[in-house]
Amino acid sequence: MYKFVFNFFFRFYKQRGSGVYKFSATGTLFVVISIHILFFLSLLRCLIGLDILGLFLSEDYSYNKLILMPIVSIFFVLFIRSFSGNKGEKIISKWPENYKLITAKNIFFLFVIIVIPATLMICFANYIQDHQPIYKIFG
User: Fold this and answer.
1) Nearest-5° angle of CA 82, CA 84, CA 88?
2) What sign does the dihedral 43-28-78-91 (CA atoms) show?
3) Distance from C-alpha of 114 to C-alpha of 130, rounded to nearest angstrom
4) Which residues does 94 contact at the CB level (< 8 Å), separation at least 6?
5) Considering the domain boundaries, does residue 135 fall inside one?
6) CA proximity to 34, closest of 75, 74, 81, 77
7) Is 11 among the domain residues?
8) Sign of CA pseudo-dihedral 95, 100, 104, 110
9) 30: number of CA atoms within 13 Å, CB side?
10) Is residue 46 part of a domain?
11) Structural domain count, the chain
């Protein structure tokens, strides 16, 4: 799934003529994986009341930014380094050069991978603000 996303956005940025295809595709993939991680965490919080992010984050936006910025930056740099080498080339080489990029199947697959988890994550976050978890195990 993530290989498809990387390949799709690499070829998409290449068609658009941006000069840093691999970096842009890796950044997009980082955002997609972040959405999936946050979706999973919001699902846990909504279903069983386990708030992993709440263990070290506070209500103060500045404090949260100071805590998360270095952590996210380190993971982003490691992520970029891992995909900028041979790993990115291996993923791209698995698809043919004349791969049709914009098709209904690809757009539907991206919709399922990106938009639906992001939307559900927002819905879960809004739900938990007004309600108790469905199965309150923690807290």
Assistant:
1) 85
2) positive
3) 25
4) 3, 7
5) no
6) 75
7) yes
8) positive
9) 19
10) yes
11) 1
Place of tokens 């891992």: 82
Amino acid at 93: S
Per-residue pLDDT of the chain (139 residues; tens, 9 = 90+): 888 998 898 888 888 876 788 888 888 999 999 999 989 988 888 887 777 777 777 778 788 888 888 888 998 998 888 887 788 888 888 888 787 888 899 899 999 999 999 999 888 888 877 777 666 665 5
What does each C-alpha distance from 115 to 51, 72, 92 come to in angstroms? 23, 22, 23
Residue 4 near residue 83 (C-beta atoms within 8 A) = no
At 135, list the tokens: 């199965």
The structure tokens 């100071």 sit at 66
Contacts of 96 (CB under 8 A, 6+ apart): none
CA atoms within 13 A on the CB side of 34: 13
Q: Which amino acid is at 104?
A: A
